[in-house]
Amino acid sequence: MGILEVLYKLATLDYIVLYKRSFPLRKGLTYERYMKLIDELNFSPYYIVFEERALFGYYDIEVLFDPLTIIPFSLFSNAIVLRKGKIRFSKDDGKVYLEAGSGGWFELLILLTLAILIYSAATVSNFLFPMLIIVFILAGLYYLIYKRDIRRFQVIENLASNPTKKTSS
Hints:
This protein is of the alpha+beta class. It has helices at residues 3-12, 31-40, 104-123, 128-158, and strands at 16-24, 46-53, 58-65, 84-90, 95-102.
């Protein structure tokens, strides 16, 4: 598989799974009630939109940033790594399956930028150190945004075991 095929697959993906969990619902909590509890959570300045896919038995998840919200001193507040996902309930084992990931274009942009920087650093020895610093900064920012985004989905996961606790991040 060539590099162009890989880039094409990344660009046409709905999302790349970066977070995947399965967990049981607390005894007495129905899946419908669980989804209502999630819908009541406040993740300001982000919105989590659920779209039911009744034919397939799951909900599509999309995390959106409220553009009217201004967060001072927060350069990457509107950057979202875990942007899309799915949540479904399996009656067979009584577990909720939650997965989230980033859109293909965001991943493609990050990977192309890192590949160009690494190639430039490898071919031009004068720029090795500055390029490596840029690569580490970009990778570090991506990781920090990813860790921030995981907290939203951990709140959704924790709601299954403790539905009375309504915390959000």
